[in-house]
Amino acid sequence: MLSLTTGLAPLVLAGLLGWTGAVKLFGRGTVLQAPKTALARMLSSSERAVLVLRGVGAAELLVAAGLLAVPANPAPGAAAALLGAGFLGYLGYGRALAPESSCGCSANEDTPITWRAFARAATVLVSGVAAAVAHGSWWSIVSGRPAASLGFLAAAAIVLIALSADLDRWWLLPLRRARLRVFGHPLFGTGAGEQVPVAASVELLEASLAWQAASPVVRSALLDHWEEAGWRILQFSGVYETAEEVRPVSVVFALDATSSRDTPGDPLVRVSFLDADSGEPVGAELLSAVPSQKALPLAG
Amino acid sequence: MTSSQDDRRGLGRRRFLTTAALSGATIIGATALGGIDADAAFAAEPSLDPAIAKSSFVEGRITGITGSILEVAGSYGDHARVQMTNVTSVWKVRATTAAAIEIGDGLYARGVPMPDGTVAADAVWVNIVNLDTQIRGIARNRLHLAHGQHEVVGNVLPDATNASYAGRALTSDLSQLRIGQSAQVLGAWRPSDNSVDVVRISVGH
């Protein structure tokens, strides 16, 4: 198993470095992504970051070609291990310097630096070391033990795909969608049945004429709410100003606990202003002056 | 003052207010004007509401609490002192009391400037966030949301999370949410683990 791992490490590594290198060197996204990377912050220039990314991409491609062509030679493996160590150092530095920025690892991703980027860089380092100490060539191992090789390569590919944040949308979201289809929606039936949530009552209140009439007085957001005999009571605080005095008041609204904005017909709201100290009703003239406003009748 | 006495007083107060509310003026009809709730905290254009026009706003992180005064460090290096009163409304996921406010919380407050330099708060929204997201995963007690480059975990609270589909009224039924939908999430940020308690999620708007 160990000989299989070290023997095939150059092939796996060449695949990974070939892909990320080609994306960095030839991808159009590099120029677009470079300003967002931690590298641009370090070099304080997007143009320099593009040059460095392209250069790293070329180096990755060169190492990948070396790993494929001369797997028995320790030089490409050592170079890959150096690349991996460099990536790890860069990620650590970038994480400390600019945790919000993207890592630019595959140059086409928009994801911030997470543990997955570190894990992928560590994989490059470890495989590089394994490739450097490999004796045989990968083609002799593949031809000698085809089934085991195929299994190992598939497993390695799955691990690398799982560690690449930019491939998520190709496998993770479809997988999650499929899980919802098979096991049903996890939030099905979690709602409180037909009950109208308080937020929906507040929403209805704020779309009502009663709210418009009371809004010169209301100052707070929702203070308290409770239900009584089919009514939902919503309490606010406010200030009632007349020419002579300014009085702090409680504003209480009562609406049907079963109606929301989707309920047909006009909302019916009862409103009172109560003096905050004495509890006596005030400001009735403000409320009695409101003309009733009917919704337009629907044809049919 | 024991808590049972408190409860009794609270119940008495509620009973009194209920009676008053049900004997108040009855107003029928709908209006096109919006409200001054949490949404208005993010309103782009100036509100027509007189309460808003006369108010000043404070936003930032709470760095200290002295009695009923909150010390707030603004996002732009400014400092403010917010005076809580016994009629200040406090929103933290739901309507709650000033006891729920902690140091380190984010704050958005609307109030009236006082001569001593404090702002007497009419309404305070704690840790309120409004995020334009995409749903990337749905589980029984949380949603995985993508906000720009960031993965955000949205906690689903059985008693506080509501959804609005295609502009319809809020409902506690969350079973119409789909992976891949764009969702506007109004919620409360949790400073401890950077997740968001989802209060309102609007899709198909």
UniProtKB/TrEMBL annotation, chain A:
- Keyword Transmembrane helix recorded: yes
Q: Where in the cell is it found?
A: Membrane
Q: Which UniProt keywords apply?
A: Membrane, Transmembrane, Transmembrane helix
Q: Which InterPro entries match?
A: Methylamine_util_MauE
Transmembrane residue ranges: 6-27, 48-69, 75-93, 121-141, 147-167
Q: Report membrane topology.
A: Multi-pass membrane protein
Any one cellular component term from GO for this entry?
membrane
Question: Could you tell me which residue ranges the Methylamine utilisation protein MauE domain spans?
Answer: 8-131
Which protein are we looking at? Answer: Methylamine utilisation protein MauE domain-containing protein
Organism, by scientific name, is Streptomyces brevispora
TrEMBL record, chain B:
Family annotation (InterPro entries) = TAT_signal (IPR006311)
This chain belongs to the protein called Cell wall protein
Biological source species: Streptomyces brevispora
